[in-house]
Amino acid sequence: MILLDGKKIAKDIKGEIAIKVTQLKATGGKTPHLAAILVGDDGASETYVSAKVKACEKVGFKSTLIRLKDNVSEQELVKEIHKVNNTLDIDGLIVQLPLPNHIDEMRITEAILPSKDVDGFHPTNIGRMILNLPTYLPATPAGILELLKRYNVETSGKNCVVIGRSHIVGFPISILMGRNNNPGNCTVTLTHSRTQNLNEITKTADILIVALGKAEFVTSEMVKEGVCIVDVGITRIESDKTKSGWKLLGDVAFDSVKDRCSFITPVPGGVGPMTIAMLLKNTLMSAKRAVY
After folding, report:
1. 283 Cβ contact list (under 8 Å, min separation 6)
2. pLDDT computed for residue 146 by the predictor
3. Residue 258 annotated to the active site
4. Residues of the chain with CATH 3.40.50.10860
5. pLDDT digits (tens, 9 = 90+) for 145-202
6. CA distances from 175 to 119, 142, 179, 249, 285 (A)
7. How many CB atoms are closer than 10 A to CB 276?
8. Fewer CB atoms inside 10 Å of the end CB: C or N, the chain?
9. Cα separation of 202 and 221, whole Å?
10. Residue 245: what pLDDT?
11. Which of 5, 14, 20, 52 is catalytic?
12. How far apart are alpha carbons 101 and 184 in whole angstroms?
């Protein structure tokens, strides 16, 4: 069993990006600039945005954090997005999810210019992804592809089963794993809450990607020998065995399945760090005008 160490690979990618930023500046290019909008004071969102800002600093990017109260109107949020859209110095914009219930997330996503949508969620960028055109790939699916590529996981001709059909992870990774690319060229099955005989389907998987949001949902009886498992889920639970009083669990029961795996991502330290690395990569692409 080989761990797909996202923490290590993300560090490597950030190092590569930092070198490219130095080269870009040396040749008269602009410093990449990422803006983030944070609505409210949700603890998890604060942590995620803080990690993104720190990552920008480490690779030589500029960053701007725009804080808004949780009772901000949808109209006011859209105005803030338009301000960033019209700020030429800013290359990428992310609006941290989830948003308060009174705000329509899709309207907010559509308000971001596709050329600055470094999260890769805008319908224009999703459409370009489906057509295999140059675009910003959604950061988490892009991170999964990069992990598989850098660990030389064979995907061509393999059966890939995806659990979960979110627009952020499950749906896009199912498209990407089926494309005529490397990684890719899989036969993909997308499963979800209405799927029948799920255990029988997951046992066919050479590559199992789990993005469900249910702690330790996948157990050893659901997988076959030699499977490659990518665990996207992360759930915080109370624990009396840690100083913090809590620990993080993935969607896969790691100890149950690890001896059956050829490759597996840990939680934490697997897909999570890769998501931020891919966000930085998309922002660099935007600064270099490599897509739009």
Report:
1. 32, 33, 34, 61, 91, 92, 118
2. 98
3. no
4. 28-113
5. 999 999 999 999 999 999 999 999 999 999 999 999 999 999 999 999 999 999 999 9
6. 17, 12, 6, 26, 22
7. 22
8. N
9. 9
10. 77
11. 52
12. 36
Positions of E strands within the chain:
2-3, 33-39, 62-68, 92-95, 159-163, 187-191, 207-210, 227-231, 235-238, 246-249, 261-264
| Ordered alpha helix ranges (H), 112-213 | 123-130, 139-150, 170-178, 198-202
Torsions phi, psi for 133 (to 5 deg): -95, 155
Q: What is the pTM of this model?
A: 0.94
96 belongs to the catalytic site: yes
Instruction: Report whether 158 contacts 205 (CB < 8 A).
Output: no
Superfamily of domain 139-272: NAD(P)-binding Rossmann-like Domain (3.40.50.720)
The residue with tokens 């210019």 is: 113
- Active-site residue among 117, 119, 206, 251? 119
| Active-site residue (options: 5, 14, 91, 96) | 96
